[in-house]
Amino acid sequence: MHRWFVFLLSLLLAACGEGALHVQPAEEWLGDEPEAEPMVQTFREVSRAVGAEARRQCLKQTTGQNCDFRILVDLNPQASVNAFQTLDENKQPVIIFTRSMIESTQNADELAFVMGHEAAHHVLGHIARQSEIASASAAEFGRVAELRGGDAAAIEEAQKLGAQVGVQAYVKDFELEADQLGTIITYNAGYNPLVGARFFDRIPDPGDRFLGTHPPNAQRVQIVRETAEQLGLSQ
Ligand SMILES: [Zn+2]
Known about the structure:
alpha+beta; Zincin-like; 2 domains; four-stranded mixed β-sheet; about 10% strand; disordered N terminus; binds zinc ion; metallopeptidase activity; metal-binding; Mito/Outer_Membr_Metalloprot; protease
């Protein structure tokens, strides 16, 4: 799962294109069996409300960025629990939820919170920032390998490692930033981020591993609580 998360994965996805997915716009998703109907309705409502608020935040906080979010559902029944954001070829922000991700949320607040978090990554320009960091760190590691007299293969290896180390150094901060703005987007869209963040209770805790891509869940819940308090939301 980027599980909402690793957006190395979303970069990869951007490279693969949507052709590999069975995606459908939230608004056009009808659901193919009657019992799916409430879930489809909820997803559509949340997409509308969070999409509109994410657009508002994006217009307020960025210049020259495409703020028209497309929210899609991946209907592939084999697709794992996942939600992620990426940019399409026109730099339009796209948020994709797999069907199993939608099914794994327990209420509209959780769905809104995950969506708000993904939208926040775009508003905060994380894909671009991450690739800048990766390039700078790759170049630096490459230079060191060159100074040590490494051959072309050694330099390339060093660059790859550099890109990885650079991204790892920032990825947890990006997640917490996205949780913070995601809390605001969720709240302004009419949902309760404190209820939404209970989603963390059910996902495996990455703990505080050195090379982990995600902050410990407790740290994420903490930032949601602090932000909610600033919004005047009672715990
Ligand atoms: Zn994230």
